[in-house]
Amino acid sequence: MEAIYVQGIWVAEAFQSKTREYEDFWLFATHIGDPKAAFLIVFPLAFYVHRRTGVAVVWVAALSEWLNLVFKWILFGPRPYWWVDESRLFLKNKPQLQQFQCTCETGPGSPSGHAMITGAAWWVVASSLSSFLRSRTGSKLLAAVPFLVYSVLLAAVSLSRIFILAHFPHQVVAGILAGVMLGVLLNRTVPEWRSLVFFLCSSMALLLGALLMYTGLEQFGIDLSWSISLAKRWCSKSEWVRMDTAPFSSLTRDAGSLLGLGLAQFWKPGGWTLPWVPKTLCLALSSLALFHISQFPLPTVPPLLFYSLFFLRYAIVPQVVMVVVPGLVHLLTAKPKRD
After folding, report:
1. Which end of the chain, N or C, is surrounded by fewer C-beta atoms within 10 Å?
2. Which residues define the annotated binding site?
């Protein structure tokens, strides 16, 4: 594997050098591919267009990110931004590499979570839109357009991860393959009308399953926090190492989102039937609310408090999108019944 890592470093250096003028585009692409974007951006957009697709995005994104965490714990993949110095193979001929604010993620590197979750969550959107176009127009050409856009988006996100030194090329390829397969498989089993108990059990299964695995590997002497110390050692700026990129942040986001999805469907089964104009207003209000929720600072000490609040943050997201905002818009726009 050492030869693959060395080659990956030189590929990243060449890619940074040749596409430096597109830095803003690559940073934007990596932001769009962030796993949290599936919950905060893709989910509300998909939900107000087609309810089943929105529910599917949360379901697929949560399970895909959880599996990505498990894969990372098993595969122990390094990240380029710290491996290049930690390996001590480039002391005489050090590559010219630049780190960015979004470079210093703390979890292991293989497979790429951005590529994997983007590949899975956006597959749901692309396949739903393709089916709609095919049914309305009967054109295979138009039905292929969403998958073309999907491919371009996935390629841009994947290349951005190499550009910012978050992943080696082979880790990105692995993320793409895993994400597409999970998108196809999980999109067939969306629990749109399942009970609150189902979602509660699913949420607890993700939490307990990961914690049991973590504890079990620790008992065998495997330190699963090894990548966090390396991130802190080799990141250009200490403030770029954030707790919301840690493995347990991904875990609490996924578990919280599934519980929130179950609660939202429990409070208002089937939701409200709204015309397109109120739906557009819902999307705008939801996006504004989710932006402020995601930007609200959380205390990082003690860690248990941070992870608990992080869990609650993402449990709130489906409530806002599926219950609070549509209910408010319905209340304000509903025509009064005549006697």
Report:
1. C
2. 79, 161
| Catalytic, out of 31, 50, 167, 170 | 167
| Residue 96: other Cβ atoms inside 10 A | 7
Cα–Cα distance measured from residue 202 to residue 338, given in angstroms and rounded to the nearest whole number: 45
Q: Phi, psi (5° rounding) for residue 105? A: -75, 150
Give me 208's structure tokens.
Answer: 């307990």
List the domain boundaries for the chain.
Answer: 2-242
Give percent of the chain with pLDDT exceeding 70. Answer: 99
| Model pLDDT for residues 216-263, shown as the tens digit of each residue | 988 888 888 899 999 999 999 999 999 999 999 999 999 999 999 999
Catalytically annotated residue among 50, 114, 292, 330: 114
In the prediction, which pLDDT does 336 show? 63
Classified as helix, coil or strand, 91 is coil
- The reported pLDDT for the residue numbered 337 is 58
**Rounded Cα distance, 109 and 4, in Å:** 14
| Known binding residues for substrate | 79, 161
- Whether 167 is a known active-site residue: answer yes
DSSP state of 336: P
Contacts of 24 (CB under 8 A, 6+ apart): none
- Closest CA relative to residue 290, chosen from 44, 33, 53: 44
How far, rounded to the nearest angstrom, does the alpha carbon of residue 212 sit from its chain's CA centroid? 23
